[in-house]
Design a protein that fits this description.
alpha/beta, 5-stranded parallel β-sheet, 5 helices, 5 strands, 146 residues
């Protein structure tokens, strides 16, 4: 069996569907996980879908992906703008990395315009709601199968 795609989610995404639905929509993270699992099956991929409010846990999953994963799709949430540690972990990963944001971060506060993760990512998808995860998964399929 092929190596899985890691889909990693950062702080507060466990509140998706409840927290600021006018920005993030009404879909829950469980909805996103189910949609990703369905699409992954259709594309012939396997996924490992995780969320944590703790930076160290996210870094541990990135380290795990170094040997067990084919690629990483990451929505680091607020850690996007602050975490050099996540950037360093991603720089130690050899496969493709795609960055996802539910909202268009460039229409929001100025501090959200900077991303450490973008320095490593092959691509960034922002502003497409939770559909961005599916777009990233489709792109990841072309990157890992090609």
């Amino acid at each position: 069996m092929a190596k899985p795609i890691y889909i990693l989610n950062g702080p507060n995404l466990n509140l998706l569907g409840l927290r600021q639905p006018e920005i993030y929509g009404r879909a829950t993270l469980e909805d996103v996980a189910e949609d990703c699992a369905s699409l992954a099956e259709e594309l012939g991929l396997t996924i490992r879908f995780h969320q944590s409010n703790h930076e160290g846990q996210i870094i541990d999953w990135i380290h795990q992906a170094r040997t067990e994963g084919a690629g990483i799709i990451i929505n680091p949430a607020a850690l996007t703008h602050t975490s050099v540690a996540i950037l360093d972990a991603l720089n130690a990963f050899d496969g493709p990395v795609l960055e996802v944001h539910i909202s268009n971060v460039h229409k929001r506060e100025a501090f959200r315009h900077h991303s450490y993760v973008s320095l490593r990512a092959e691509g960034v998808i922002a502003g497409f709601g939770t559909e961005g995860y599916l777009l990233a998964l489709r792109r990841m399929q072309t990157l890992v199968v090609a």
